[in-house]
Amino acid sequence: MDNAVLVAQREDQIASEEHEIALFTPASDAHDPEFSIVVPALNEEITIGKFVDWCKEGIARAGVAAEVLIVDSSTDRTAEIALAHGARVLKVPRRGLGRAYIDAIAHARGRFIIMGDADCTYDFRRLDDFVERFRAGYEFIMGSRFAGSIEEGAMPALHRYFGTPLTTMILNFVYRTDYSDIQCGMRGLTKDAWQRLRLTAQGWEYAPEMIVKARQIGLRTVEVPIHFFKDQEGRLSHLKRAGWITPWRAGWQTLKIILTYGAERVIQPISLFLSILGLAGLVALSSGPVRVFGVTLTLLTMLLASTFLIIGLVLAGISILSICINDRTGDDIGRWSKTFQFTRSMTISLLLFAAGFGICAAFAAKFIASDFVFGDDAAWIGHLSVIGLTMIIISILMAGFTILLQALVDRMRVLDNQ
Asked: Given Cys at both, which of 74, 87, 118, 205 links 68, Cβ 3.0 to 4.6 Å?
């Protein structure tokens, strides 16, 4: 299909989506708000009125100029009730929780954003901690239910004692952070930081993506305690509506986000360990069997060492590509593209291949000349052939990695220029 046609179709799609978004303002609309409480809602007519009242109470108690923006994709009276209680309502198509926040960016007027749920499980009557941290210069503020309080029956045992602690521990380990509750939905960030994060997640996985990207771009971050309540009488939570499998999907999605944006943090130490272990084994066994602590290490051990080295180098390549894909400044891309400059890297690859091929050819010639039989005194020849085969494999891997890296660099330059 012609590129011009594709562009035209995309522009029509964007225009259509924007046409589906409508903003409604209450009679008592806030004037020039400093804070925006931005909360998605889906069929929350039971709680939305009380929730907006809680927000108004919290705003008054904190003594700030603020607006309440409900991002609504409901089929019930949620929007009508929210508007009647003094909230702005942004009507959007039902496309996911993360997409609701993306749609809301252009419509939030405050310099500081506070997010959460419209089900009255987070206490929006107490916004003081968020306001104080924003005033102190923090750009990203995470609420923590574990540092605050959790009402009896508010959180299922599976979430409270397994799912949330486990995913929090994994994220903290990978990114060297110290959060206590990465699944908490009540959080705040400056509008500038919100725009710089460039969130892409369309669903609830926006939550871990926000935390990971805040770490990547170095936002000044702090955690504050919050109060978490059980569902209001008569309300069925979205979790229960979605079914029992939802928490397990959520766990895998969180793990996906953690690894997608920080694979190198997990891979690098494994890569380094395997590469050093494999190289040491190849060098030690290159001239023949070696006896260590009464055990004779032979050709099979050398093949294992070769495997370790190859896996280690493959993981190193994946790690570097991950770093470049997630680079927000261009510094890492520039450094690695210079390190693996095309001409130099391909020349090294060809030399490695030629050397490895020469060693293997010499081994083959010797093997044929000896009627396909080697005595124990010629075991070193077989060991040397493993070195040759390893060099050939590494040369191919290096050439392929160099081509992929240069293609990635060129692609990202095109995207930056668009």
From this structure: 87
Element (H, E) at 197: helix 191-197
Calculate helix-pair angle for 48-62, 128-135, nearest 10 degrees: 50
Q: Band of the pLDDT at 130, cuts 50, 70, 90?
A: very high
Domains and CATH numbers, the chain: 17-260 (3.90.550.10), 263-417 (no CATH)
The tens digit of pLDDT for each residue in 294-312 reads 888 888 899 999 999 999 9
What's the rounded Cα separation, in Å, for the pair 237 and 392?
Answer: 58
**Contact assessment for residue 122 and residue 43, using Cβ atoms and an 8 Å cutoff:** no
Residue 400 structure tokens: 């392929």
- In angstroms, the first-to-last Cα distance of the chain is 20
d(CA 209, CA 198): 10
Pairing status of strand 35-41 against strand 112-115? parallel
Judge whether 68 and 90 are in contact, CB under 8 Å. Answer: no
Round to whole Å and give the CA distance between 266 and 37.
36
Residues 6+ apart with CB under 8 A from 393: 310
Distance (Å, whole) CA 306 – CA 297:
14
Residue 315 reports pLDDT greater than 80 = yes
Match 């960016």 to its residue by tokens.
Answer: 105
Instruction: Determine the pLDDT at residue 238.
Output: 55
The answer for residues whose C-beta is within 8 angstroms of residue 261's C-beta and 6 or more apart is 209, 212, 213, 216, 326
* Cα atoms in the 13 Å half-sphere on the side-chain side of 266: 15
Residue pointed to by tokens 């369309």 = 202
pTM for this model (two decimals): 0.77
Residue 41: name the closest of 105, 86, 84, 87 by CA.
87
SS3 38: strand
Q: Which residues contact 383 (CB under 8 A, 6 or more apart)?
A: 285, 286, 287, 288, 289, 299, 302
Instruction: Name the DSSP letter for residue 163.
Output: I
Tell me how far CA of residue 319 lies from CA of 32, 341, 395, in angstroms: 46, 17, 18
Section 367-392 average pLDDT: 78
Quote the CA–CA distance of 50 and 14 in Å, as a whole number: 35
